[in-house]
Amino acid sequence: MSVKYKYDITYVFGKGRKSKLESNEISGNEFFYGYPYFEKKHYKLNIIETDEPSSSKYFKKYFGILDNLLARATKLTFYKNALISKNTLGQIYNSKNIVTSNHGIGMTLFMYIFFMKKRKKINFIVILSGLFAMRKSKFIVRVLRKLIFSWFLSTVDYLIFTNKSEYQFACKKYPRVKKKFVCLPFCIDTEFWKPKNKDKFSQKKGILFIGNNGHRDFDLVVKIANKLENIPFTFITNQIKTEEISSSNVSNITGDWNMGYLTDVEIKEYYERSKLVILPIKNTLVSSGQSAGLQSAAMGTPVMTTATIGFWDYEKYEHLKNIIFVENNEFDKWINLINELYFDIEKLQSLSENGIRLIKNSYTLDKFDVELEKLLI
After folding, report:
1. Residue 42 region, left (φ>0) first, then alpha (ψ -120 to 50), else beta?
2. Torsions phi, psi of 252, nearest 5?
3. Whole-angstrom Cα distance, residue 12 to residue 31?
4. Where are the domains of the chain?
5. How distant, in Å, are the alpha carbons of 72, 162, 233, 259, 370 from that of 107?
């Protein structure tokens, strides 16, 4: 007996993407994870976002308590309060493929999809970054987390790792299920993220820091800018308060992609006119800074970032060839490297050209879309 589905693919996103798609705003398409590509190929598509379920206040309160209990017990992330309702579960049940944009959403849904799979085939794909970057915890938390995690791994069909470092770590730690692990690097829309002008670096000015991810080292960013008073800095983030900045060389701009404070067109302009983008990162398996780093490089602006255990791909990147690595995230090393390179126009130009070449060869969006399509049923 054939199984009927209402949707070929249901995407489950955090809030903000549906409105961006409906607005036809000119932007890069990388954070829609194949949606525009599949739309052109006439797949039957659906989007569910957090904070849109129609559950009663009683159930939202109940799910909120459950989220807190599960998070405390396992140190994992859950969004039942913001996602689960009869309506959303019905949409998921009537979908052939489920694609979640982060592992917190995947963790939230997997228990329900586990039981749905008893009745019909559902292909469950979770895109992740940092799921395996688990903090040390007490014994009882480790036991509960292992139980939940094992159940999750038995339910999911594919885990898409957007950085190679975490993928390699997971394959070593969970060899029995590594056939479910797919390393599909985060890619960007190079039709959008490309420089408008071939400016010489003598015409560029200032250093840009961008991002809100909790693994960015915001304190270090402020400290660097305060020290280098002779260089103009621009911060685009919602995590640094203006009163934390003691020097007059910093423009602090509120930015959040989901909230749409700045358009991609505006962010693109900030990338293009900056001499350098800096991304100080705490040492974590999470590939923090990956999207900003790729976008910046595509725009022809060199990236200086911390050499963390979670950097997205050490095999393709080479220090002082197509990126600038800072070892151990040390303040003095940041200061010395910035002073050394900021005024070296010839070196910046070389880094820029090599960075653009690498993005075009390895991180174009069509690569991600085609490989994701191969995982669908």
Report:
1. left
2. -105, 110
3. 12
4. 7-184, 207-362
5. 14, 17, 38, 24, 25
The CATH architecture assigned to 7-184 reads 3-Layer(aba) Sandwich (3.40)
Sheet strand arrangement including 324-326:
250-253, 233-236, 207-210, 276-279, 303-306, 324-326
Q: How far apart are CA 211 and CA 225, in angstroms?
A: 16
Residue tagged 């019905």 (tokens) = 90
239: Cβ–Cβ under 8 A, 6 or more apart, which residues?
A: 212, 216, 218
User: Could you read off the pLDDT of 195-236 as tens digits, one per residue?
Assistant: 987 767 888 999 999 999 889 999 999 999 999 999 999 999
Give residue-wise pLDDT tens across range 54-89: 667 888 888 989 999 999 999 899 999 999 999 999
C-alpha distances out from residue 289 to 61, 152, 189, 253, Å: 34, 27, 16, 18
Structure tokens at 22: 């409906």
